[in-house]
Amino acid sequence: MTIYKGRRTKGLLFVLSGPSGVGKDALLIHFLETCPGVTKCVTATTRDPRPGETAGKDYQFISLDEFKRMIEAGEFLEYAEVHDHLYGTPRKLVEETLESGIDVILKIDVQGGLAVKKLMPEAILVFLAPPSIEELERRLRNRLTESEPEITKRLLDAGSELERIPEYDYLIENGDLADAADRLRCLVMAERSKIER
Ligand code: 5GP
Question: Distance, CA 3 to ligand 1 centroid (Å)?
């Protein structure tokens, strides 16, 4: 017998945003290992793979023509231009996963996060912030994946992304990776326990 008939059957949709270099990928690896029942949605991009990235795991790496076709066909839940490349969230994958009762986490930029919230107000927006801009710059330089102009562009973009924090539901500061992953896990657990009204 079910104790509470109003129990949720669909998965929850989480969005994780934060400036480039803040450590979203590392956090997600840590988090996903310790939080069963939630899956990361692989998004599509027109940018080239970085060394070590795998197609279908990190991104669907697609051509500009294919991206345009997917826009025309309405296959994106949202899409945005980020740091001069196009990125989009595949609508069907998100909807089907949620429908099957599995929670979804989207690692997308702030414009994308806010667009998702408009379409799906029940989405839970989480912002991952660096302890300081100096630390963000250090992390961006240490990963050695961007050229100097790209680093400058990403740091500039970081400023405008941080201004949107008040529009998010949760803020996690990524000073220590394990601590940040714990916080994310705790908020996911809390959201799962919420009673729907
Ligand atoms: P990167 O090129 O460093 O992997 O990602 C650049 C930015 O694009 C990150 O902030 C990442 O979260 C964001 N991003 C990745 N996929 C999507 C997407 O489907 N939509 C939007 N709006 N942003 C995305």
Answer: 41
Its domain, for residue 129, covers 13-193
Residue 197, pLDDT score: 72
Overall number of domains in the chain: 1
Q: What is the pLDDT of residues 33-56, one digit of tens each?
A: 999 999 999 999 999 998 889 999
pLDDT at site 1? 65
Res. 4: pLDDT tops 90: no
pLDDT of residue 66: 98
2 inside domain: no
Ligand 1, atom 22: closest residue by C-alpha? 112
pLDDT bucket at 29, cuts 50 / 70 / 90? very high
The pTM of the whole model exceeds 0.85 = yes
Domain assignment of residue 118, yes or no:
yes
The ligand 1 atom nearest the CA atom of 45: 16
Any domain includes 5: no
Residue 35, token pair as written in the block: 């939080």
CA distances from 132 to 136, 137, 147, 184 (A): 6, 9, 21, 20
CA distances, 46 to each of 9, 26, 64, 115, 154 (Å): 35, 22, 6, 20, 17
β-bridge mates for residue 79, sequence order: 88
Q: Is 175 inside any structural domain?
A: yes
Which residues line the pocket of ligand 1, CB cutoff 6 A? Answer: 20, 43, 47, 78, 80, 82-83, 87-89, 107-109, 111-112
